[in-house]
Amino acid sequence: xxxxxxxxxxxxxxxxxxxxxxxxxxxxxxxxxxxxxxxxxxxxxxxxxxxxxxxxxxxxxxxxxxxxxxxxxxxxxxxxxxxxxxxxxxxxxxxxxxxxxxxxxxxxxxxxxxxxxxxxxxxxxxxxxxxxxxxxxxxxxxxxxxxxxxxxxxxxxxxxxxxxxx
Length: 166
Known about the structure:
Blueprint: H1 5-12, H2 15-21, H3 27-35, H4 37-46, H5 52-58, H6 72-78, E1 88-93, E2 99-107, H7 113-126, H8 132-158
Antiparallel strand pairs: 1-2
């Protein structure tokens, strides 16, 4: 089942407007979506396993389009939307490489930085079928954490008195 939280991201990041700006929708289709926006939103939340394009076409808001087949996470990645809070990683081994009794599922954002680097080092090389959305989320999460660490170093240098107790 597709994560319901992805629907929120479409609205938070104005994906409909951005797709229109990129000429994915005609002006007439965009107007049709705008006029039926509440109906569209209500329908999609009631049918969260349907894809964005699938909902638009099922409600006859746009003409047949390749968007019908495009996965929502692929659309969100196209616009560089943060997905680490909705994409999950399933761990079968602990940090000592011991097989767990039961796999643990966590959001990418909740993985330790060392775990993210281990996945990147091992899985990118040895798992050719690792979904692109997983790679995207891991790379994005590592980049965010690197930026946060850089900012923390700057703050420590600028305001050392606030970091003495830490």
